[in-house]
Amino acid sequence: MLLWLSVLVLAPVSGQFAPAPKPVISLHPPWTIVFEGEAVTLTCHISHFPAAENKKLYQWYLGTEIIREIPGNTLQVRDSGEYRCQTQGSPLSDGVSLTFSSAKLILQAPHSVFEGDSVTLMCRAKVERVDTAWKTRTLYKNYHVLIDLDENSNFHIEHAGLKDNGEYHCTESETHCCSVSSNTIKIQVQELFPRPVLRANPSLATPGNPVILTCETQLSPQKSDIQLSFHFFRDGHILGSSSKSFLKISIPSIVGNEDPPYYWCEARAGTPSVYKRSQKFQIPVQIPVSRPVLTLSTPGAQAVEGDLLTLSCEAKTGSYPIVYQFLHEEVVLRKKKATFGGMVTFHIFLTAEHSGTYSCTADNSLGVQRSQPVSLSVTGEPWAVSPPSLSGSVSPPSRASASSSPPDVLAHTSAVHLFADLGLFRAATSLPPRPLRSQMFSFLTTCPVNPQKHGVLGNQNQSPGAHRCFLSL
């Protein structure tokens, strides 16, 4: 088992600065604590130098002093302290602390433990007796009994995880005698690689066009020899798997204005078995507008001068915002912007000049679509209006004028309320009269009217004086 240590530094690459790893030191055996008299072999690895490692000169440090400068990248040591290495042109490695112990009992563990690692803790006595029936070794985690060790005095963690973090030590107890405790080691399980992040390029897509999905993560430098595999998903269905961290896909068509699908990826390490999933996200999809539909509506079966014409334009699909234009004989009448669903409308009061061909366009910056043309013929025959028939009532005069006004004369302070029946007919046509509204109005005010009878009617019960009633059609 090898121990890898690494920190990123900056090194020039193709004229620019890019991260370059420091040398890393591996240990064999992998323990950072051993008994006095034993030896540990250190190996200095420098991955970014292409030359053969045995042709370089390596400098080995104990503390801050150089203890050896040799052509090979290995060094066997028997002294306690912090060791570092480097070669010509490389940065200095991080230090690895070794302890050569004189204790009777030691607990050995790897210096670095990563999630998914298979880890062995070894409780060792300086003098191992052949007969072990009279002694007991116990492993503790956070000062609570974890397990009584077997005759091998080893404890195995198959797949290390956060649950295994803690402080460990072991004891050896002899029957009817005494107990010996080992050193304490702290296990902090490190992340093998962070949770991946899924990115899309381009970040704004259109249906049918290619998009590159990239599942971004980074193995710890100490575990750079592990091979990751990448798996890409869309709404729960796998799109592809490989050792490459990117995948080229085609964005599917969107029906109507439905939400785009969700994408995510997984990064997996086969040995050890560790996998992590990115967050789900949606790739914003720009949908070109469909051909809009133009609708013209008037109050009656035929369009007549004075009618209120409603023009409606709607594209059933398309990303917002959508800019609509209403055109009459290729002349733009109105431009409207829609930022959410639904049709846009436009109103005009018809005159004879409004006859002709109408159309509308829809544009969301992905192309302009035009509706089918719609023709409109405006009838110009005017309405004939008969004189209104007036009836009314007089409110009681005010106290100031009631006594002085003759009974047959309306006082200036009296309120006269009139009703009008207006007969309408269309000249030289057999079409039925158009209904208007009936409404009570006050004396000498504008008269909003509604015919209840048809034909020519005469004036009735008109009050003395010159009074005017304005009719608006």
From TrEMBL:
Predominant localisation class: membrane
SMART domains for this protein: IG, IGc2
Chain intervals for the UniProt region annotation (Disordered): 387-406
Domain Ig-like: residue ranges: 23-97, 115-186, 194-282, 292-375
InterPro entries from the UniProt entry: Ig-like_dom (IPR007110), Ig-like_dom_sf (IPR036179), Ig-like_fold (IPR013783), Ig_Fc_receptor (IPR050488), Ig_sub (IPR003599), Ig_sub2 (IPR003598)
Pfam families: Ig_2
GO CC entries: external side of plasma membrane
Gene Ontology MF annotations: transmembrane signaling receptor activity
Endpoints of the signal sequence: 1-15
Keywords: Cell membrane, Disulfide bond, Glycoprotein, Immunoglobulin domain, Membrane, Signal
Keyword Cell wall biogenesis/degradation: no
Cell location: Cell membrane
Name of the protein this chain belongs to: Fc receptor-like protein 5
Originating organism: Leptonychotes weddellii (Weddell seal)
Taxonomic placement: Eukaryota, Metazoa, Chordata, Craniata, Vertebrata
Gene: LOC115936985
